[in-house]
UniProtKB/TrEMBL annotation:
Protein name per its UniProtKB record: GTP-binding protein
InterPro entries: Gtr1_RagA (IPR006762), P-loop_NTPase (IPR027417), RagC/D (IPR039400)
Role: GTPase involved in activation of the TORC1 signaling pathway, which promotes growth and represses autophagy in nutrient-rich conditions.
Compositional bias segments (type: Pro residues): 315-324
Transmembrane segment boundaries: none
Protein keywords: GTP-binding, Hydrolase, Membrane, Nucleotide-binding
Region (Disordered): 270-343
Domain of life of the organism encoding this protein: Eukaryota
Entry's family note: Belongs to the GTR/RAG GTP-binding protein family.
Chief place where the protein resides: membrane
Subcellular compartments: Endomembrane system
Source organism of this protein record: Marasmiellus scandens
Matching SUPFAM superfamilies: P-loop containing nucleoside triphosphate hydrolases
Reactions catalysed: GTP + H2O = GDP + phosphate + H(+)
Length: 414
């Protein structure tokens, strides 16, 4: 798929499903393949249906192709295929797909799965050279570290050798291997990387995160899809797995217990301000984002009305949140989108990670109903410059919302 200043252009790898009456939402398709019991359905269910990993044990065998839809920054359609699916029995040309994920059980005998994978890679080479080819070497947690690395290396080597045996032209195909397991964070990390290749607006989201980090003194920030806990973008600093895992766990905790931490200000009576009045000066200060507190909740009716004339155009240049004014005079009324009575309220939370001075705080801000911003902040910055942080979140939110609406618009066909 290519991008234009007006957003993504549809290609073969996307097909439509009915959205509103007369409208078709164009979805990006992902093909999930692998032998029987390799773990395909478990991957789909754990990521997109919140199934606890332990319950995957009871999943039925997949007898026919099941198409799952999922909406995040881009709308996805994931095809969970039975173990005996072949290029011929797939029932759709590979040109329809953006990504092929092939799942191999790390403890299986490799001959059969590798033959099948090679068969699909060769077909993809002819039908859709742009197809992203991803191999999940799955159930990795079952092996000790050394065996895990050795088996991973062997699979990688054998696939490459088999492809070279078929024809040297297959050497140039970019194959990506990931070690995954539903029982740790490796699956989320791997699938996030798969997702990044499908998001055309990724550079704009990354720019917004870079600007947020610079202006908020944040060493690391992620834009997560809240439900699946896949990160759709992060800033330019490298991702270290400890920080990623911490953010994933924090998000899981907030997803599970968030509703328990509603503050007083979440009561419906305090959701709206009189139509002509500005928010009362105390409005923001009544919703302190204290460790493990949730401030405000979601007013879904107002969701679509949250952008205003100040909305920057993120597709041309990312917004640059002003720094000097909030730094010198934090204005807490700017935070949490309390600008006009039309706007909705957004959840936010913060967790102190290690209380020793200077300490680090992990903040959570809802950006759209699907997306949340998780950012690490030095605790003195979080405590001393709340106005600045809130102000920067507002600009970040507006940028992301505009990108999402452009994506959505581009994918709607009448
Ligand atoms: N240890 C371990 N077991 C897993 C993992 N992922 C899946 N499993 C188990 O593997 C078994 C098969 O999982 P499924 O998701 O049904 O596999 P599938 O590929 O969809 O199988 P078919 O529907 O028959 O094609 C289940 O018992 C899962 O609990 C993993 O990461 N680690």
């Amino acid at each position: 798929m290519t991008s234009t200043p007006n957003g993504p252009v549809r290609t073969n790898s996307q097909t439509g499903s009915m959205a509103n009456a007369g409208e078709v939402l164009v979805r990006t398709k992902i093909l999930l393949l692998g032998l029987r019991r390799s773990g395909k359905t478990s991957i789909q269910q754990v990521l997109f249906n919140n199934l606890p990993p332990k319950e995957c044990f009871y999943l039925d065998a997949t007898m026919r192709i099941v198409k799952h839809t999922y909406d995040t920054v881009i709308p996805l359609e994931i095809w969970d295929c039975p173990g005996n699916t072949t290029v011929e029995s797939l029932g759709a040309p590979l040109s329809q797909f953006a990504t092929l994920i092939f799942v191999i059980d790390i403890r299986d005998l490799y001959n059969q799965p590798i033959s099948k994978l090679v068969e699909f890679i060769m077909a993809a080479y002819h039908q859709n050279p742009n197809l992203n080819l991803e191999v999940f070497v799955h159930k990795a947690e079952r092996l000790h570290e050394d065996d895990k690395i050795e088996n991973f290396r062997q699979i990688n080597e054998r696939v490459t050798d088999r492809l070279l045996d078929e024809s040297p032209e297959y050497e140039q195909l970019p194959l990506n291997f990931h070690l995954t397991s539903i029982h740790d964070h490796s699956l989320h990390d791997a699938f996030s990387q798969v997702l990044h290749k499908l998001i055309d607006s990724l550079p704009y989201l990354e720019d917004l995160l870079n600007v947020f980090c610079t202006n908020s003194q944040s060493p690391k920030a992620f834009l997560f899809d809240a439900r699946s806990r896949l990160y759709v973008a992060t800033d330019a600093s490298p991702v270290d797995s400890a920080t990623h895992n911490l953010c994933c766990d924090n998000l899981a905790m907030l997803n599970s217990f968030g509703a328990l931490y509603k503050s007083v200000s979440a009561s419906p009576a305090r959701h709206r301000f009189p139509s002509t009045a500005t928010p009362p000066p105390s409005a923001a200060s009544t919703t302190p984002v204290t460790p493990l507190s949730m401030s405000s909740n979601l007013d879904s009716e107002k969701q679509s009305e949250s952008t205003d004339s100040r909305t920057p155009s993120p597709l041309s240049s990312p917004p640059a949140p002003p720094v000097s004014k909030p730094l010198s005079a934090p204005d807490t009324n700017l935070g949490q989108a309390r600008k006009t009575p039309k706007e909705k309220f957004y959840s936010s939370a913060a967790t102190s990670l290690h209380p020793a001075t200077p300490g680090t705080t992990l903040t959570y801000h809802m950006i759209t109903p699907e997306l949340v911003l998780l950012a690490l902040l030095p605790t003195p910055v979080f405590e001393g410059k709340r106005g600045l942080i809130d102000y920067n979140v507002v600009f970040f939110r507006e940028g992301v919302q505009e990108i999402c609406s452009v994506e959505k618009e581009a994918r709607m066909a009448v």
